[in-house]
Amino acid sequence: xxxxxxxxxxxLVGFAGIAGAQRVLDVGCGTGxxxxxxxxxxxxxxxTGIDFSPAYIEHAKRHSDDARLSFQVGDACALPFPDASFxxxxxxxxxxxxxxxxxxxxxxxxxxxxxGTVAAATWDTGGGLITYRMLFDTAAMLDPDGHALRAQAYAxxxxxxxxxxxxxxxxGFTDVVQDMRTIRMDFTSFADxxxxxxxxxxPIAEYVNALDxxxxxxxxxxxxxxxxxxxxxxARSYAATAWVVKGKAS
Length: 250
What we know:
By secondary structure, the chain is of the alpha/beta class. 41% of the residues lie in helices and 21% in strands. The protein has two domains: 2-124 and 159-183 and 242-248, 3-Layer(aba) Sandwich (Rossmann fold), CATH 3.40.50.150; 125-156 and 189-234.
């Protein structure tokens, strides 16, 4: 997701409307794309990124050359910061993967000062993420385990209309707004499209790597047909829509 989160990050920052701040928190920062985007604003004095994965945090640290940035390992459901210690907080593409996402939202409320903005984004996997549908729907057609994987992926919380806004209101945020933002996912070829499926991260890669060679070849061939659409291999571009939400801490 790294290359796509780089495209989504400025859209989330723009939606949040954060003009400047002393301290901003990026929860579930992954490899740091949202944090790197935030410090492009010289009016933001410091950005702290926190993630559950030590590997992601080490990657973010290695690629950070801005003194205003800091990264640390931590749990979104038990943020290691005092109450009201940040002016604003953001979270991108991580809430559906947290075992207790509503608890994480309450933590975002707790660590943000009153009146500060808390914003987040999650993919609309139900219909707004075409690449996922191509892979998951094909897997579901070929394999009962693929069907279970698709059901699990689409049932993750905070990915359906209104779910983010409801979570924000339940946590006590005011002036809650939910909207959508869309990027393009561009690929140079089917090999470029398929490569993440045989990588190391994410539910698709986990599923594909568990298949026996014959089943993996069958899935790859079927997904390739969807990608080619009866034409020659080459570049393709797909829309990818994310839900975005923001609210004021109270």
